[in-house]
Design goal:
heterodimer, A: alpha/beta, Rossmann fold, four-stranded parallel beta sheet, about 35% helix, globular, B: Rossmann fold, six-stranded parallel beta sheet, about 30% helix, about 15% strand
Chain lengths: ~150, ~325
């Protein structure tokens, strides 16, 4: 059976704490998500999402605080706006929009972490592997300049 | 000392970069006096055989414009690389893939279907499109292979320097030529333009509000653009924040937004993702419905944020697994 690889970016204040809670409560859920802790969902640069897909992720999950609850006032709103534009970009690039998911999960919602990861794993399993073509290595562009 | 030998070549491009050379105006006479042009198919009658007969590294500098779309272009790039001491990617198409790079939203079959079978401007729909081998009464003809994917020059050969722009400005070209003649070039792999965002040299930067927020997105034809005010502040998508400086805000001085032809600075891996991020974060709405309604006004996100750089972006092209037929 195809086991999807999901990269999950969780904000440290809400969703990561919720994932911690799910762990200490010994909840059982799909082992398909690789969690990366970030300070805020607003810190998630769209480059991170594209890089995850390029490097073999079949799905990317973003978890942040509920609207109004952001530790930094409005980081989660920035994540929400980027998410909508990114989904449209991904569709144009032949990547199903279901492969990118945004969820608000507060620190007390360990069960929601379980439910979201289980559900997304099944969704991606149905979609199948992303199979982005192999890309050629590129020389990085250097910093120096003439002027 | 003999004059440095210089070659110019074009691949998938519009010819504008060749014009940029002529745009040196009277300075071109100094350049022509200082160098020996050994290959320039657009202006002088040289053939591929002439290059093949040269010694390796016989050419001092090759300025190659255009993206790599055809097998022949890849062969020429490799041949010129072998014969040249310095290979310079000249202009957006060889630097980033350029406008032809937007072809990476489709594959060969889809492009041929559209261009040779569907468009209404075709004189006759004869059911034919280019094949690599065609039999005619006189024998067999060969055409170069048309690739599924457009590449930037550094994806097929090693590139020493990049001159950005669609096309590069005469000033940058002249600076590069002088640096070559004086043997005063920076580290290999450098883009020969300032490594800062266009906003830093934009004359409208001072009109940018302290906290830049927008409630609507408009295309340039939908609004009377105030010629003094920051375009983003007017709701017009300007790629300035995610684009390298060096053009001295040419388009903005023409009251049009930057479309990103100089590519990103060295700190950015993916120009489109950065621009998308910038535009999304200045949108002054928190409700999902409002956000979607405004974002949907960006009719073509890839064409807006990756107009010149799709082949060098992180995803490089539309997912081929989904497009191959």
């Amino acid at each position: 059976m195809f086991e999807p690889k999901i990269v999950a970016f969780f904000c440290t204040w809400c969703t990561y704490t919720a994932a911690d809670l799910a762990g200490t409560a010994r909840m059982q859920y799909a082992p398909n998500a690789r969690i990366i802790r970030v300070m805020c969902s607003g810190r998630i640069d769209p480059q991170f999402v594209l890089d995850a897909f390029r490097k073999g992720a079949d799905g990317v999950l973003i978890g942040g605080c509920h609207p109004g609850d952001c530790h930094y006032q409005e980081g989660n709103y920035k994540a929400l706006r980027r998410y909508h534009l990114l989904q449209r970009l991904l569709e144009q690039m032949g990547i199903e929009k279901e492969r990118l998911r945004l969820e608000w999960i507060s620190a007390s919602e360990g069960d929601k972490v379980k439910q979201v990861i289980n559900d997304m794993t099944e969704t991606i399993r149905r979609l199948g592997p992303l199979n982005i073509m192999e890309l050629p290595e590129q020389e990085p562009v250097r910093a120096a300049s003439l002027t | 000392m003999s004059k440095p030998k210089v070659a110019f070549y074009w691949c998938a491009s519009c010819g504008g970069c060749e014009e940029a050379v002529v745009d040196l105006a009277e300075n071109i006479l100094d350049v022509v006096n200082a160098v020996d042009i050994v290959f320039w198919p657009v202006a002088l009658d040289f053939k591929r055989e002439d290059v093949e007969q040269m010694e390796d590294h016989e050419i001092d500098v090759t300025f190659l414009n255009g993206a790599i779309r055809l097998k022949e272009q890849e062969e020429m790039a490799k041949l010129l690389r072998q014969k040249s001491k310095l290979m310079i990617a000249f202009g957006s198409c060889s630097h980033l893939g350029g406008i032809p790079g937007l072809g990476n939203l489709w594959n060969r079959n889809e492009i041929f279907q559209r261009a040779y079978h569907e468009v209404s401007s075709l004189e006759e729909h004869n059911g034919k499109h280019p094949e690599t081998h065609v039999k005619v009464p006189e024998g067999e003809l060969e055409l170069p292979e048309f690739y599924h994917t457009v590449h930037a020059l550094n994806q097929v050969v090693e590139v020493d320097y990049y001159l950005p722009g669609c096309p590069p400005t005469p000033k940058l070209l002249l600076q590069a030529v002088q640096a070559i003649l004086q043997d005063n070039l920076p580290e290999r792999g450098t883009v020969l333009a300032p490594d800062k965002a266009l906003c830093e040299e934009c004359p409208r930067n001072e009109s940018k509000p302290e906290k830049l927020l927008i409630t609507d997105i408009k295309r340039p034809h939908q609004v009377h653009v105030d010629p003094e005010k920051c375009l983003l502040a007017q709701g017009v998508i300007c790629m300035g924040p995610a684009t390298r400086a060096g053009c001295e805000a040419l388009c903005i001085n023409g009251n049009m937004p930057c479309t990103g032809c100089f590519g990103p600075t060295s700190k950015v891996l993916d120009q489109g993702a950065k621009a998308l991020s910038a535009v999304a974060s200045i949108l002054d709405y928190n409700e999902e419905e409002d956000i979607q309604q405004v974002m949907n006004k960006i009719a073509d996100p890839v064409g807006t944020f990756y107009r010149y750089g799709l082949p060098v972006s992180m995803l490089q092209r539309r997912n081929l697994a989904k497009t191959k037929s």
